[in-house]
Amino acid sequence: MATTAPANASRDGVTVARAKWRPLEDERWLAVVLLLPTIVLLGLFIAYPFVQGIVLSVTDARVGIAGKYVGFENFERLWHDPIFKLVVWNTCWYTLVTTVFKLGLGLWLALLLNRNFKFKAFTRAFILLPFIIPTVLSTFAWKWMFDPTFSVLNWLLFKLGVIGRYGGLNWLGDADLAMWSIIIVNIWRGVPFFAISLLAGLQTISPDLNEAAAIDGAKPWQRFIHITWPLLLPVTMVVVLFSVIQTFADFQIVYVMTGGGPANGTHLFATYAYQLGIGTGLLSQGAAISLAMFPILFAIVIVQLLYIRRVETR
Amino acid sequence: MTKVTRRQFVGTTAAGVAAASTGGLAGILATGRAPAIAQTTTVHWLRWNDFVPTSDKLIREKIAPAAEKALGIKINFETVNGNDLQPRITSGIQSGAGPDLIMLFNNHPHLYSNSLVDLSDVAEEVGKAQGGYYDLCEGNCQVDGKWVAMPMAIVGALNAYRKSWFAEAGASKFPETWDEYRAVGKKLKANGTPFGQAFGQSFGDPPTFAYPLMWSFGGMEVDEKGKVVINSKETVDAVKYMTAMWKDSFDEGGLAWDDSSNNRAFLASTISCTLNGASIYLLAAREKGKYKTDAGAELATDILHGELPAGPKGKFAFHTFQSHALPNYSKNQKAAKELLKFIHAKENYAEWFRVGLGFDTPPTKVWETDPMWDKDPVMKPYAVAGKLGATPGRLGPPNAKSAEVLSKYLIVNMFGSAIKGQSAEDAVKAADAELKKIYGA
To answer: Cβ–Cβ of B408/A276 closer than 8 Å?
Structure first.
C-alpha cells in the first residue's frame, strides 16, 4: 500500500517522518504500469486497425477516396459474390484438412522424439527447419517443385514410370490439385510446430504413470489412450487453437504459389481481401472480406476455449 | 599541464556550441539559401523489373546519374515485380508516403486518378515534340482530358514461335486466322511441343491474350455507351473456342503460369508458340550458346514473331502499356516532373529505348522510323505495336470501371473458369454478373 502521510505530521506532539510516495508499491498502480506497454501495443497494432477495418467496411472507400457510409452494402455484395462463396469453402477446407494432418503427423513425430535415441537433440533441432525458414523462401522452392513445366515431382513420377512423358500432373494449373498443393506445403510447414509443442506437453507427463500402467499389464496402445492422450489434451487443444487461427488467416503460401488462381480456385480470405483491397484499391470491399472472417474465427475460438476450460477443470 | 575543471569544460563547450550554431544559422539566413543538405531533393522512382535487364541497368548506371547531375537531385531508383506495382501505389496513397514516380500498367491510372498530379504540361510537350501519341495512350492515361500519367512505353504483345516446328506442321508463315492457328497447334501438341499461354492472375500475357481473343469473336465488355453487353453469343463462342483449343493445342499447365513462366517454357523448348513481349527472343539472342534448338543451332535463329490471328470480327491486339504516375502525396513534385522531362528528352529516351532493342516500344509516333528497327528484321513487327493496340473496355469510354475489371482479372478468369470445366455459358454469365456490379446494370 502507498503511504502518503503529510510532511512531518505532528501527532500527539510526536513528529512523524513523512513516508515517501511510492505508487508502484500499490498493486493497482503497478498493474496499470505493467499492463501499459501491452495495452499500447495491442491498441496500436490490433485495436486501431480492427476499428479502422470496421469503419472502412461500412463505407464505399476506394484508394485515395474516403468514401461515404453505405451500411452493410459491402457485406450484402459478398453474400451474392460467387467468388466469395468459393473463398469461404476453400478456407474452411484448407484449415480443416491441414489441421487434421498437422495434428496427426505432429503427434506421431512428438511421440517418436520423446523416446531416447542417438542424436536426439540434433534431430529435434533439425525437424524444426520448415518452421524456421522464412515461409516465402521455402514456398518459392515448393513453387518450383510444383511448376507445371519443370516440376521435379513430375520428373520423379516419370522416372518411376507412374506417368508418361507428356502426362505430367498439372499441379498448380488444376484447381483441385492446386488446392492439394498448397495444403501439402502448409502441412509441411506446420508439422514441426505441432511436434515441438506436443513434445513439450509429453515431457510434462510423469514417466511413473506409464511405468505403473505397464507393470499393471497395460499395452502401449492402452497406455497412450488412457494415460498419455488425456494428459496431453489441454496442450493439444491450445496448439490446435493457435494453428486454426493462423491457418484460417494464411496468406503467404497461396500468394506465392498460385496468387489465388487458377481462376480464383485457391483464393483464401486473406488473399482475396488483398487482391480487392490492396491490388485493385477497393479498400471497403477488401475490409469487408477480412471482417467476414472474424465471426467464423471467433466462433471457433470460443468453442475451443470453452472446451479447454472444461478439460482443465475436469 | 593546465588543469581544466569539469565546470570550466562544460561552460566553454556550451558557449562554443551556441556560438557556432547561432553563427551558422545567421549565415544561412543571410544567404537566403537552404543548406546544401536540404537542397538535395531525393526522387524515389519505382519501376518493374524490366524483362530486358539491360534497360534497368542503363537507368541505374547512366540515365539516373546523368539526371542527378543535370537536375541537382538525388534519385532512388527501385525495381519490383510488375505484379507488386498496384499494391505499392495503393499503400503509398493511403499512407500518404511512398515513391514519387510510380510505373503503372495499362489503364490502371484511372483507378488512382483522384490522387495523381496532373502531368498534362509534360505529356503535351513530349507528345508535340515527338510526333504525337498513339490512341491507346490517351485511353490509358487521360481522365477528363487531363494526363494523370505520363506514357512511357508499349510492350508489344506478339506470338514468339518456332519457325522450324511451324514449317514441319505445314505453316510457312504465322497463321492468319484462329482456325489455321489451331490446326498448327493440334499438330504441334501431338508432337509434344504444344502452344503455351499464361492464363494465371498476372498483369501481362494473360489479359493481352484473353481480351483480343474475345474482341476478335465480337465479344465486348460494354457497348459505346458503357452498357454491359458481355453476355452475348459472340463471347460464348470465343470462350467455347478457347476451351476446345486449350485441350487440343495448348500446354495445360498454362492456367498456373505468370508472365515469366511462358518465357522459361519456350526457352526450354517445351512449347512452340506463346504470346509475349520480345523478351524471349532478345534473351535467346543475347545469351549466345545458352539456348539451342534440337539440331544444335542458336535458338534465336529459329524464333519469329507473329500477330494474334483474326477471328470472325477481325484482328485485335492489346499491348501491355506502361506509364509513370506522380501521386499528389509526393513532396518532390517539381523535381519528379523535371525528372520525367529528362527521361523523355529525345536523346535520353532514345538511348533507353534502343538498349531495349524494341521490347519497350515508344508511345509516340516519331520512333516508328528509328534506325534501330532496321537492325533486326525479327524485331521489326514490334515497331508498330502502338498503332494496333486497343484499350480494355472498348468500345466504351476508357474509365476506372474497365480498369477495375482488368485489375480483378474478370475477363481472364472467365476464360480460365471455362478451361477449368465450367460451361462457357455459365462462365460468361458469371462475368456478366460481376461486370454489372462494376458498371451498373
So the answer is: yes
